[in-house]
Amino acid sequence: MASLRETKVGGWWKRPVMDESPTDRGNLAKAKRRIKQEQQKIQLREFLKQNRFQGVDVSKDGKLYPIHVAAHLGDFDLVRLLLRAGADPEQEIPGSGGGGKAIDIAYAADVMGSHQKIIDLLQAPVKILPVRGLRKLVNQHKVSL
């Protein structure tokens, strides 16, 4: 349990100092993670709402998907959030003739490396999964870690 203590230095009282136990630090770290996750959810919802998307894998007017717009904008964090939320990086824009994946859009919008982090993320053979998704995958295939 955290407690306040005062110390006297050279005849003067110092400000109270918070003593933290490892449990308090662990709870603080969990709280910070939860806050960050909530902020990311809000950011994702706002992006979908502003761009009139109904979901992370639902196209707008049968053409663009959220991941295409985020890749074009060059927003690495948003692309990563969309991937974590289940967006398909292989989704093509209908009628694009094979050049309508998010990575193709990032390449086209790249100016002197401006979209390089997104291109690297989308090229990665590793799929981004939240911990729950990993647990579900492990349980489905009965693999032990």
TrEMBL record:
Methyltransferase is among the record's keywords: no
Keywords: ANK repeat
Signal peptide range in chain numbering: none
Chain positions of ANK repeats: 62-88
Native source organism of the sequence: Durusdinium trenchii
Protein's name according to its UniProt entry: Uncharacterized protein
Pfam families: Ank
